[in-house]
Design a protein that fits this description.
82% helix; mainly alpha; 3 helices; flat; Chorismate Mutase Domain, subunit A
Length: 101
C-alpha cells in the first residue's frame, strides 16, 4: 500500500515521527544531565543511586499519567526503563573514573 502525501494517515504518521524524534532528543538531554549529576554526586561523596528520589519520580509520573489520561502501567514501565538505563550509565561512568585513579 502506497501512501500519498496528502493522505491523512501519512500526515499523522509524520506527526508521530516528529514526536518520536523529540522523545529521543529529550532522552539524550536527560542522559547528559545524568552524567553531570553523577559527577556532582561523586564530588559530594553521595551514593550514586537514591531510592527515595526514584520513589518520588514514580509518584510524580503516576500523577502526570493520571492527569493526562494515560495508563499508569505504561508510564511506570517507561520510567523504569529510563531509570534502569540511567543506573547503567552512571555505573559505567563511575567505573571509568575509578580506572583513571
Amino acid at each position: 500500500m502506497t501512501e500519498r502525501a496528502d493522505d491523512p494517515v501519512s500526515e499523522l504518521r509524520r506527526e508521530v515521527d516528529l514526536v518520536d524524534r523529540e522523545l529521543v532528543r529529550l532522552l539524550a538531554e536527560r542522559r547528559r544531565l545524568v552524567a553531570r549529576l553523577a559527577a556532582a554526586k561523586r564530588h559530594a561523596r553521595l551514593e550514586a543511586i537514591d531510592p527515595a528520589r526514584e520513589a518520588e519520580l514514580h509518584a510524580r509520573w503516576a500523577e502526570h499519567a493520571e492527569a493526562s489520561g494515560l495508563p499508569g502501567e505504561i508510564v511506570s514501565g517507561v520510567l523504569e526503563a529510563i531509570l534502569g538505563s540511567s543506573r547503567e550509565h552512571v555505573a559505567a561512568l563511575l567505573a571509568e573514573r575509578d580506572d583513571d585513579v
